[in-house]
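Re: Re: ligand-bound prediction request (bumping)

Still looking for help on this. To restate: I need the protein modeled with pyridoxal-5'-phosphate bound, output as structure tokens. Inputs repeated here so nobody has to scroll up.
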Amino acid sequence: MSNPYQALIVERHKHPLHAGRPTQFDAQGQGANPICGDAVRVYVSRAGMDVHYEAEGCAIMNASADLMADAVEGKTPEQVERLHRDFEKLVTTGEENHELGELNALAGLAGYSSRIRCATLPWSALAEALHHV
Amino acid sequence: MSNPYQALIVERHKHPLHAGRPTQFDAQGQGANPICGDAVRVYVSRAGMDVHYEAEGCAIMNASADLMADAVEGKTPEQVERLHRDFEKLVTTGEENHELGELNALAGLAGYSSRIRCATLPWSALAEALHHV
Amino acid sequence: MVGEAMSVALESFNVEAAREDFPILKELVHGKKLVFLDSGASAQKPRAVIDAMCHVMEAQYANVHRGLHYMSEKTSDAYEAVRGKVAAFINAASQDEIVFTRNATESINLIAYTWGRSALKPGDAVAVSEMEHHANLVPWQMLRDAHGTELRIVKITDSGEIDFDSLEQVFADGKVKLLSITHMSNVLGTYTPAERLAKFAHERGAKILLDGSQAIVHRAVDVQAIDADFYVFSGHKLYGPTGIGVLYAKREILEDMPPFMGGGDMIASVTYEKSTWAKPPFRFEAGTPAIIETIGLGAAIDYVNAIGLPAIAAHERMLTEHALATLGNLEGLKILGRAQDRGGVISFVMDGVHAHDIATLLDRQGIAVRAGHHCAEPLMGRLGVTSTARATFALYTTLEEIDALAKGLQRIRQIFA
Amino acid sequence: MVGEAMSVALESFNVEAAREDFPILKELVHGKKLVFLDSGASAQKPRAVIDAMCHVMEAQYANVHRGLHYMSEKTSDAYEAVRGKVAAFINAASQDEIVFTRNATESINLIAYTWGRSALKPGDAVAVSEMEHHANLVPWQMLRDAHGTELRIVKITDSGEIDFDSLEQVFADGKVKLLSITHMSNVLGTYTPAERLAKFAHERGAKILLDGSQAIVHRAVDVQAIDADFYVFSGHKLYGPTGIGVLYAKREILEDMPPFMGGGDMIASVTYEKSTWAKPPFRFEAGTPAIIETIGLGAAIDYVNAIGLPAIAAHERMLTEHALATLGNLEGLKILGRAQDRGGVISFVMDGVHAHDIATLLDRQGIAVRAGHHCAEPLMGRLGVTSTARATFALYTTLEEIDALAKGLQRIRQIFA
Ligand SMILES: Cc1ncc(COP(=O)(O)O)c(C=O)c1O
Ligand SMILES: Cc1ncc(COP(=O)(O)O)c(C=O)c1O
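Reply:
Sorry for the wait, this slipped through. Here it is.
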């Protein structure tokens, strides 16, 4: 199994680009894993898919949320749905997919089935938010 | 394990000497093993320890009941109790005991822990009967 | 299976080769070759099962679920993979419909405690047949006594088959909400017509539970084709280890069932005031599961699949026919049950010889059969006996072993003549 | 144990020799030597246990009880002999006080379902502590919700010990009829003063249940000296197989308990109208038991006895002292709990690093620790954390492994600095 803690993951965990609750947003969604206490809340602004989040959890979840916010910026809901699907595939199979760009940093999770949910939790929260938009 | 079906056992099973309900008796006791349907009823006449029985069960139980009736004839209750104890020891350890006489034919049971109860059932019924005398 | 398919299956199956897979079959008993005709109580284990269990303990073990390290991940994956294997083996729609228990007995009790006490109301009735194992009778008596449900008995015919007239009567007033019935009798060898019974129950608004403890070993089972609501069996009769059993239930039924035992792994979250339950199947698996045994069960299923249930069924049919013919000819011996559709479980009684004496005397010749009421006391009453002797066949049973049994019985007859 | 006795025990114990008994310790993980510090979740198995289980399956297997043939007799004898071993191991007055279950979780649920629903009346209270595993909390919640008993929580002090003031309060109104409490915390490593607690409960007319899942592994337990009413543990933490657990209860309590599950082996007789129950312990063991696993547990107990719990306890005390000193010195790392009387279970948190990240990063160095709430969610709240990382020691743990852990934690700290 390859390293799930690529430099990018640690970097985004320590210095996130999209963390924090925005003053204005159109919808929100949340995810929680009571087993480890991971919790995330995702905020979406309709205008050109602008995503922020508040996260309390492990480095994998925090970084995944931040990279997700990057990746979905300006995308349509359909494109986001597609990315979500591809991302799930990436973290379960470990097969990199160049369309996923920096998200590929999480491919190393594939060997750690109990950690995969850490990475996908922000995506579920985003899906919930989009459902409410 | 030695043979628990000595000729004497088969013989007594086929041709018992003490089977049947006597017309007169002072006390009775019974034993049953619902697992196999074995059932025995033992009748005691106070005068000089005269024992009869009705049995419905396997050859081991039937023969054991018949040999028991032989062995206890004319004994005191204390002597019967002692025989009972020695008999239990015989069938669990397999060590013959010349004081037990023909009862030693059941020593071969020792290897068959699930059959030991077949041999001791008449003795429990007798103990119950003596308790009532 | 008939005709061509059967002979193909038979040809491809080599019992002598299969026997090599079972180390215990080389053992001597009282100096005689072991002839093990008690597989219906519990089957022997092939090398593949033994090896799989050893492998876990030697090279890949840790507690499952939530271990964030290699050994735990690998062990969890191996454990959960068996859920998929079991689902495929009985053709469940999803592996989430497979709950691991200790044995068939626990599976039935789990249903009685959870579904029975939530979906059934006092006054509702549960119907079982006259040929149930205690495991499929006592839990419903306990439910009756604790919860006020009724327990009804479906009669069997003299040939040992479900009496459909009796079934109609038992269902007539519409109170029966569960038909809980054996898929194959452990005393008479009878297969019950599972699909027909399921249709019958469903048309009358009842659910059906099939006790597959015996059936699963001898024929391919398809829970979707049967349309079973519940299906249960034990690993140890299927050439797998003890300590592991299976409960299959349709997803929507499991979803609505409250948990059975409380503890780790079955919760979503816990506070002192209130705990919320995990989804099925985990809701029903409290505490550290039988990890090593589950993986052993997976190996047993792989083993059976590799030989193929059609081949096993064909082999056992041949054995059964031979046994019925051979034992049926012995003087003073009576075989109980003569169902049209039957498998390799043969109970018999002998004039003037108690079943326990038969078992012990056969044992002295190395032949293992069971004797007693086979955990089916009420059936003994129905058959007018207190106990029977019983020979059961497995994939490793041979024609010669059946001949040895017949010869052994003849000898016993002589002793008691 | 102190002074001379301890050094004698230590001298006679050779950890490197003991490690040879555990084949898995030779495995590599991610190319690194396996450092297994998750034995508190489940321990690894010595060769003797693996061999005992293989032996049953290879040479001496059949279903137990009532088989009237050699293989069944021998297997039954081996199975029942383990009851005696377990009784001796915990100094029970009789082997009839030993009931076999799947695991500690089932043992507690069995008590809650049977004793709880018969001996307890609605309005009676069950008291547990703030540091219980879910296995000793959820069953009492379920009993509360189904049966109307109350559930009370005994506080712990900031050092992680039972708060006797709180205990007094909880018992003040005389409603508590059961104190159900861990004998050793699986999170904080705290030993609870079992004898004192038993005396306390008994003086107030309550019974005591001790959850010995962790304690049994590290110290000799004497249920008579403690005067425990119930004592439970699992085989798999005691170097034995999964799928087998133990419930000890005093004979007079077991005698009065109704059965838990219904089925074969637990009955005296069965008719449709009424079944009568077998005597304890059989009344509580329905269906085919975990035969192979029980025999494996017997081998585990023999193994532990051969080394001796005093030697194991001394070794683990040395490890624990070393770990507390070494880890306690690491910057940014906080060890939770500092009970006077504690064993080799150490939970910790690290500033700015989530426990899950610690576990995964240690795993990449071959070091297995557990992270999460350890099935003790309410305790996490009490400690003000959502999860912890936890290292637990076994008889095969070495000082070098603890140093490897410390080094690994330092490296993690650097990554996240
Ligand atoms: C203190 C304590 N109680 C109960 C349990 C439950 O044990 P099992 O999962 O074997 O039933 C554990 C083990 O996780 C434990 O540590
Ligand atoms: C038909 C039937 N049902 C249930 C059982 C109970 O199986 P187990 O003892 O494995 O729970 C058996 C096995 O004895 C059986 O033959």
